[in-house]
Amino acid sequence: NSHSDLVTSCANSGLKEGLVSKQASKQASKQANLNEIICTLGVLLLSLLAYTNAEPVKFADCGSTDGKVAEVDIQPCPSQPCQLHKGESYTVNVTFTSSVASQNCTAVVHGVVEGVPVPFPIPQTDGCKSGIQCPVEPQKSYSYVNQLPVKTEYPAIKLVVEWELTDDFSKDLFCIKFPVQIVN
Ligand SMILES: CC(C)CCC[C@@H](C)[C@H]1CC[C@H]2[C@@H]3CC=C4C[C@@H](O)CC[C@]4(C)[C@H]3CC[C@]12C
To answer: How far is the CA of 118 from the centre of ligand 1 (A)?
Structure first.
């Protein structure tokens, strides 16, 4: 990934710097110092990104007929497919644009286990209480946010999570699918 690439190239430039002869001009050592500063800044920035796990999650659209998904974030999810550790909580954030007006919206979650969708009851199904300013208006961007615990009684399996947000017409403002792995 870009993080390790940067670390490697920074280490390389440090090595070259060490090989520079004693006659090397002040100019070259100034350049080396600058490189070092740029490298340090780059590594710091990428580490911050990795720490906040702000990288978007790869998802499949399963029929967002009344909206368009811009981005899906899961926190924390340092590598994909996201590993969901039992006893920990995870936050999903779906940014989408609605193409319709809707007074209400409702979240519906399924776990697709070995190809079979199993309904999953979530404590808060009201989208208007999950980060969305209702009523939903057309051509506006919204962020749906929900946090869920991974209970110890869940099986340690790989599955696909299917998350939908339905509007007043029971059509999907968004429908996304992403793989996860539940781990002990
Ligand atoms: C990415 C984050 C926000 C998702 C958090 C929700 C997780 C914990 C939910 C979403 C779908 C859920 C799964 C839905 C269906 C099943 C099948 C059932 O027989 C055992 C539990 C299991 C396997 C659930 C485990 C928990 C689950 C994976």
So the answer is: 9
